[in-house]
Amino acid sequence: NVLTTMDYQQKLAEKLTILNERGSGVLIRMNHIKKTCADPKQRPSILTDKGMESAVKYINKKFPNIDFRGNIQNLTGIQRQKSEVLSATSSYYDSFLDVIEFRDHVYELLNTIDACQCFFDIAINFDFTKNYLDLIITYTSVIITLSRIDDKKALVGMFNCAHEMTNGCSDSSYPRLGQMFVEYEHPWKKLTEEFGPHTRSVTSALLSLKMVYPRRNLPAEQWRGAQLLSLLSAPAAMLDPACCDTMSCEYLSMEVMERWIIIGFMLCHSSLNSNQASLELWKMALRSSLYLTLTRDEMLNIHKVTEDLFDGFKGYSKRVADIKECREHVIVNCGAMHRERRQFLRGALKELFNVLEDEPGLLGPKALFVIMALSFSRDEVLWLVRHSENMPKIKTPEDYVDNQMAELLFYMQKLRGLMRKYNHVLQRYHVQYLAQFDALVLNDTIQNMYVCPEEESVLMSSFVSTLSGLSIKQVENKEEFDFRALRLDWLRLQAYTSVNKAPLPLKDYPDLAKVMNLIQFHTRMVDSVEEVLQETSDTVHILKMFNQSQDEMTMKRYLMSFPSVCSHFSQCGHPLCPEEVIMEKRSLRLCVTFLEQIAKQTSNIVLEICAEQCNLNEQLLPKHCAENISAARHRKQKKPVPKKGEVQKEKPGAESLRKDRTVATNVDKMHLTLTELCSSYSLCNDLIVFDHIVVPTEFLLSHLETRLSEIIVRMANYNQTTQEIARPSDLLAGIRVYTATLHSLSSYINVDVTRLVKNVLLQQTQPLDSRGGATITNIYTNWFLECLLRQASNSLIVHCPTMHCFINQTIDSEPSFRAEEFSDISELRALAELIGPYGLKFLSENLMWHITSQVSELKKLVIENMDILVQMRSHFDKPEEMANLKKRLTGGENVLKRMTIIGVILSFKSMAQDCLKDVTLSVFELASAAGLTCDIDPALVTAIRSMQTDNISVDEEYKLTCLLLVYIAVSLPALALDNNSSYSREHGGEYSSIRSHLLQTSALKRSSCLICRLHSLCVVPQTASSTLLQLGQNVERVEVKNRESIYLLLHMIVEESPFLSQDMLESCFPYVLLRNAYREVYRSFIVTLG
């Protein structure tokens, strides 16, 4: 009775649960401290402070017996900053105290379990045995990790020093803490001494694995022979529930079992010499791995550590030889064995997923298969990660590199997704199973027990009542299930019935253990599927294998499984280590890095396909058909024999002719790669990494946007040095091919290509894109201003109204480009389509800037000749005085030159504006931006108005404008001496200079009407007619050879202006002169009637 009462009061189950949870937190905290102190960026500032250097050295040397009073000169740094030192080291000090507290409770519980002489068998009291072994391994890992913290003595010593300087005494826990650090200078030796008394309990728990571990540690050939994880191997039994006597053991991690066996027998090594079964189990585990994980990326070189430990013990020479033999076995055989396992699991998981995706109802009876598949795969994945980072020197290093890892990981993620998606199927099935089968079997088992104490009876009765009360309606009503209390009661029952001389020894009732282990698994499938998935398929360490898979063609479709693993990081933290907030940033950054790399590969291949299509389309452009046209015209002639070695040019479309379809072209390979990469995006629409929702396709669109912008600019082929550039129509054709090819991307993956193209092209209508780079708007604006219009201003290029373009003048040297190929209607329409209204507005603003600079110079000339111009304005009807005044004018040629520049610019602006014909609001600036013609050029009006300054009055500005018009009018006769001022019937008008004057004079007049009064415009025909009539008095024909052309210019100025009329012109200039001028200029032109 005393023993029974003690068993109930010991609360072994509760203590094991709490201490395992607490130990996990302490272990993570120790690992965090180790990483923080080892990282130069995160290392505590007090350890890197130059002023603390002597104190740190002194404390490390004298620890733990530090004289805080006698050697104050070594501790002056701490004395000066004692409060800062206390605050900086207190969290570390408290964390080390947590280790002491954890160690004390572990010692107490282990001693209690030994005193109770508990029975352990992983197949019977699974949870009790697992928690016991987990506690031992967690405690050992905490101590080993603590011993690897190099700065622990400095941190604790500095805290205690600052504490004594502040409070006058040392911290009460410091002696124990210092003693612990000293004792664990050689942790394994100390740990083996501590666990010596627990050898019997530990050995019995480990030996219970002798049936489970060998069954799990089989080669792939035996897995294939048994058709492991296959639902199709026995079709008749496909609906039968998957169950066995050891449910939880079936998905127990191999690494966990190896950690139990190897570390357990290291701590209780005497069993290896006294028990043959222990020795065989230990050697089997040593033959499986070279490294084990303590926590996260903290590894344990098991053979080296074990050999170093056993070398110090007498009578262990055989064990040292066994270790060396096992290590050689691992190096020779394990790489290939695990490679074959991974190969098998890839096929098995693919088959399992395909069957369950097609028939998700099978998830109910075959849930165990999914959990086993995930656990087996996770073990193989983590084995490769551990060993590939610490690869031994072997002849077959390829066994430790797996470029097909992405596929295995992909199907693991897919199976996890099925379990989450069809959680309601699992709940429906297992709730019915628990209520209608498990509860009945458990009740029958209890009834057949010949002894059942009260406490145990109460627990088992509560199990039956809880399970019997379940119904399918709870699932349909989406009620929350929580069986944690039932599972904890089962753990309590295991503890009660596993002690020595228990009234109800569990080992005598294996049927009870079997049914309860089955019930435990079924309850977990109802209320904690996510926890089981985390336990069996946590693969955060696999991320290091990404680079091995991304270069393999067949693995590209599985690459998205790597960033999806980043969503698991949120489950890796622990409440005892809240400082690990950096994990969120790192996991998000890692996820983004993977997505960036996948998006980069995908965008590269998409744009390579676009470029290939662009090259093929470029062959079909009209400019390449000249050779074919020439051949067609001469096809009746005998075809010349090709010269030897000469390769005949292939016609467009020849690349589609194939003799053998199995021969893959470069385009075929690119499309295959694109298909593989786009398939990876089907894994998930978005990823949740902590509190962040990450959408993979947005990374692809972002990459495509950036690259496409660069490509469009590059396709313009702009060379600032040579002023070479692609024709707008060629660029537009290329962009259309890119756009059409990009839209085919929607066949592979659900992305909004229309939004992508709109964003890119809209950015190209601005002078700079979103990254601050030059756009085609900027490039073409610069080229037209600096190249075409500059040459037009110098009369190397002239405007041809008939052809609606600029053309090159005939000169001796070869022109750098043909103006009509860049300025005809088709090219300017292409330009308008490329840069749109926004781009044309930017172009117009730049053109206006050049005009305003010319107008500014013209105003300066007006100011210089103001007195003369005032007189000419008032004496326009007195020819003699006008002639005398004209001789006194200065800068007339300069005026005409600047007027020519303005005219050229306005001619080009008018042509570009005519190519934009979309309908919008018909108000000046909006209508002009839309390509509609206005009587008044709003851009020119705005530009001229912006030139007005505050120190010039409106009347003064009016006067300057009127005199400028007078200046222009009296300068017109000088054009008669210009060779470029002749009227050309062939081109439909005058050459450059005279045409430019027409446009700029008309435009300036229209713009001036908003600044000046309309009646002032009549000064132009009045003044011009007075000076032009004087040309008729000149008898020397050479000086007035283009007189008739200048007469016609005056006529055309009046026609262009909406504010001047023919009546106004005839009042001061005889119409007979205009009629004679037209007859004269048409006389030399030969009219050909077609």
Automatic annotation (TrEMBL):
Chain intervals for the UniProt region annotation (Disordered): 632-657
Protein's gene: NCKAP1L
Name of a matching Pfam family: Nckap1
Basic and acidic residues biased stretches: 643-657
Coiled-coil region(s): none
GO cellular component, as recorded: SCAR complex
Example of a GO biological process term: neuron projection morphogenesis
PANTHER family: NCK-ASSOCIATED PROTEIN 1, NCK-ASSOCIATED PROTEIN 1-LIKE
Compositionally biased residues, Basic residues: 632-642
Record protein name field: NCK associated protein 1 like
